[in-house]
From TrEMBL:
A Pfam family of this chain: TetR_C_1
Protein name (record): TetR/AcrR family transcriptional regulator
InterPro entries (UniProt xref): Homeodomain-like_sf, HTH_TetR, Repressor_TetR_C, Tet_transcr_reg_TetR-rel_C_sf
Superkingdom of the organism of origin: Bacteria
Domain called HTH tetR-type: residue spans: 1-37
Protein species of origin: Salinactinospora qingdaonensis
Length: 181
């Protein structure tokens, strides 16, 4: 709270007149973030488009606020906006013919994909010094270039994972005797 007050150029005591605890402040921020995540894709009954739109929107929100990822990843708790999002996702999946148990698992799996992608940059984890890789790691001869292309690689990697995930779910949906579709 002191750091935030310093950033806002106010006294920490001023913040406590609005928020009793840091947890309350983080909850409010998480509420705002969740309220902006788009779950409208489920309204038309197309679960694939619903997941795609939700996952991209969720990923964008978390990527814009990476310090909030651990707090949001801990679950919706009693945060109304997060519960509304979960309700829309679950309802959209069940409405499209997924059994409730699988709908829950798909929502969780999508969250794992999004949170994992937002939590870390794969590309920025490599050193820019070619000497690190040149002699000992011949299969990583271009790894030193990853950091300079990090945004593109991370974005494309997220899209690849999302597409593979959706393709796998489509196969499950088509072959599952449990689904109504």
């Amino acid at each position: 709270m002191r750091k935030l007050a310093q950033e806002l150029d106010v006294r920490a005591a001023s913040l406590y007149s609005h928020y009793r605890t840091k947890e309350e402040l983080l909850t409010d921020i998480a509420q705002e973030m969740a309220a902006g995540i788009d779950v409208s894709g489920f309204e038309a009954g197309d679960w694939r488009q619903g997941i795609r739109l939700w996952a991209r929107s969720y990923f964008a929100a978390l990527s814009a606020h990476p310090n909030m990822v651990p707090f949001i990843a801990s679950g919706p708790g009693r945060r109304d906006a997060a519960l509304r999002m979960a309700d829309a996702v679950h309802g959209g999946l069940v409405g499209a013919g997924w059994p409730a148990r699988l709908a829950t698992m798909i929502g969780a799996s999508t969250k794992y994909l999004v949170v994992g992608a937002a939590l870390h940059s794969f590309s920025r984890g490599f050193d820019a010094d070619i000497r690190v890789y040149r002699d000992r790691y011949p299969n990583l001869s271009q790894a030193h270039r990853l950091a300079e292309h990090a945004a593109e690689i991370d974005h494309d990697s997220f899209e690849l994972a999302l597409t593979a995930f959706l393709d796998g779910l489509s196969h499950l949906y088509e072959t599952s005797g449990e689904s109504a579709g």
